[in-house]
User: Fold Rap guanine nucleotide exchange factor 4 from Elysia crispata.
Amino acid sequence: MSARSSSTSKSGKTDNKQHKMKILNASWYSGLLKRPLDRTSEEIERASAHLRDVSAAEKFHHCLVQQMALYARYDRLDENVLVIRQGDYGVNWYLVLSGSLAVYSSENLRLKAGPKLCTLTSGASFGEGIFTRNPHQISVVTVDKTELLWMDYKDMKLLWERHREMMDAAITSLENLPNLNDEMKKLLVSKDTKTWDDSLNPASPICAEPSGNISHAAWVLRTILMGHHGHMIRDRKYHLRTYKRCLVGCELVDWILDTFPKVDNREHAAGMCQALLEEGVFVHVCKQHPFLDQYLFYRFLEDEATPGPLPTEADLERAQEDLFDVFSLLAQASPDAALRVILRKLPDDRTSEDVEIVYEELLQIKSLQHLSCTVKRELASVIMFEAHSHSGTVLFNQGDEGRSWYIVAKGSVNVSIHGKGVVCVLGEADDFGKLALVNDAPRAATITLAEDNCHFLRVDKDDFNRILRDVEANTVRLKEHGQDVLILEKIPFPVDSNGSFHSEYKYSVMAGTPEKMLEYLLETAMDPKKEHQMAGTFLDDFLLTHSIFFPDEKLCAAMSKHYHASADSTDTQDDCDFVLSQKKCVIQFVLTWYDLELDKFSGSLPISQFIESLTKSVAQDCLAYPGLIGDHEALLAIYKDRKSSAGPNKVSKMKSFFPSRRGHTKSSLGEGDGEKKVPVRSGDEYIFKVYCADHTYSSVRLPMASSVRDIVVGARDKLCLGTDAVLCEVKSNGERVVFKDQDRFVIMSLSLNGRLFIAPREHLDALTPVPEQEGPNISTMPALELMSTRELAVQITLFDWELFTAVPEQEMLNKVFGTQVFPSGFSANLDHILFRFDQLQYWIVTEMVLVLNLSKRVQLLRKFIKLAQHCKDLNNYHAFFAITMGLGHLAVSRLSQTWEKLTSKMKKTFSDFEILLEPARNHRAYRQVVSTLTPPVIPYMPLLIKDMTFVNEGNKTHYDNMINFEKMHMIAQSLRTVRFCRSEPLELESAEAPKTGSDIRSYIRNLHVIDNQRILTNLSHKCEPRKG
Assistant:
């Protein structure tokens, strides 16, 4: 009985254990189907217990098994399921628990499978390619029902970092796999020797899959070449080897230049081909070179493994229709593709031209604006390109060692911190990773790709530290009383001495006190014996920007001090020569200043007084220093010219520029298109038209520079208002903007149809726009039909040129730096040309939505597109941008029936305009076009002001007690651009009869527009009602 009971008891315990194990085995992986964060401790322990009993995991350390239960996922697959595709980038690592998988490899990635290489069974792992960031070189397919554990890159990398030694057992040694053939062993050898970063190889693609547009472009080009130029794509022999269906690089460039006239140089054509190659649809036959304009063999991917099909007649017809669009697409992509070729070269392989191209690109990157030009130039020689194809790729983890600094060139990344998740998203031109390099500290966050196909510029730690060391080594600091007063950068340059070269040095000013920089200028730039020591454009930059940090009165006082500084040191001939040299340097500085800023010498009281005083001093010194006689004559000519030039009173007798606001703005001396116009000056009188709540108005005649308080006082007395009256702008949409008492030049800050109103503060809500602010309600289409489009463009350009040439460079500084730097700053002429831009843009929109007849509207749309083309041909990019942006306004762009009736040629023309307007890469397309133009040019003024504002806000003006002159260099560059654009006169003649030309001129200078978005939208829907 006891024995039986014992036996029965043991049998029962065994049955219970087997029952429990059966339940356990059935549910052990339930937790592995969840996200790691959602798993309970029981589920993790259950999975861990099961894995320790599985033979596939017996080689793993028990601690590692526990971690796998925490991070791994479970999957059960049927037979013939593709787990890994050759050519795809790795995202997961796999462990085989049961079943088997076949490994294949194919030379043609388009084939589903090649010859079988080996079989993976229980305990094998694969997917180690996630650590190399290279495409898979094999495909893996299940042979029968298979159980797998898998981990993504982030979790696998985390385990590797925590358990590096134990993880060695988790990576299968592929050479020891059963049934491994010789081809697989060769594959493994190539894998071991392959670099982990294909971004450095310009011959390799930068993305996993080509974009649809580039794939189509490759198809179109191959179809055209195979169908009409079959001699270009053929089998070729080289060094006893035959290359199937390939073409020669230089021959392809020749064909592009012959076929597409808009590409005017071989470098541009080569860049178009590189755009195909870098996306993998076009390859070098040995995959060793990027696209080069040389006798090298290339082929289309379609012909890579086996020759692709010949095109049909239908294919040729379709390809011919799309050829122009394809060329335009590739022409747009060419500059970036060519730049990436340079960035993928090793630093030692880059030429001086390569470095200069990269440097010009770095100047446009916001995150680098705070760096000196020298540092940017050094970065241009070492900065590298890096690309990642898949969203979720981890660039580095929090706590990693800092090895590189990154700048986002394309795409975006997520910034994550342990315990907080994603704290921000960084986009194009943002940078990250520099702090860890500067502080030599671990990474403070994890960076993960937020989207596919992200591109980066990368500076590695060693290069970063070397540049900082070199810059400091080439920096010369001059101190006075223990403080830096001048910082120079030493720049070596080669000198040829009888056939042998040696290095000498020029010095560029990086920072300094105003007084010390002036002293350095007088001692070097103004002295012919020392002029060679100065590098760059320091003299011009100083004169163009001195008003920011060294106002006229202080500069004149400092020069006067320098002129008289050594008057007592005349004991010896050397002393006399030194004093004469010092005086000549001051005079030469003044003459150079006069040549550069002629207008200032007639409009600035401190300069006028200084010139008068200096001229008298030089006249007195001519007796002791006869060498000053010629200088005195030059100064006397300036003095007489200043006296004879028109002063403020004389200018006021001529018509000044004012925005043409119908019923609102008038010159103090009346209208008249025949009068010669001159720039607006702050002392010019102006008739301010100020409205009341009942739409009655009063006119107040005051100087342009009058404050709001002066206008209020003048208007309230006439309108019998109390002392609590305030001045405000009422816009056409009813919005009110209240001005402060100290505000000045308010007339130039009004919107297109804005008006000045005055009312007690408590009655501001009662103010409404006057009827005329709504703008016109009838189109001028009947008049426009009779006007020549070319003549319209000519008259627009003539008026814009008058406005552009009337803008003093000082007004641009006033606008950008504001009243904090220039308390009495005046920018009315600049405001006028910016106002004109908005006026032209809304004129286009207004005319389009006021034409209700569809055929007439299509005719007007064609006329405006031609008008934009004419303005572009006349180098008037200010008007070109305004017109094109007007046509892109929502109220116009939504008129689908109108746009559909345009010819394909006209649509293509407008599409090219939009490409030029594309703001990507800091308006790179526009900047490249403008850089090739010759003056006269009317540039896109809002972008110039944006550039200067960008430099001002991104860089400090002062470092300690010194001026950051690197910033002044960049500001001066924009001013030089303006100076270059108007360095030649505009010579345009009207082709119309005088009467017709005068009518068009009057029309262009008195445009009436609607600027109320609600009214424009309603009129647009009236033209073409919303569908549905």
About this structure: The longest helix spans residues 313-343. The first strand starts at residue 73 and ends at 77. The chain has 37 helices and 32 strands. Confidence is low (pLDDT under 50) at residues 1-24, 173-181, 183-197, 646-676.
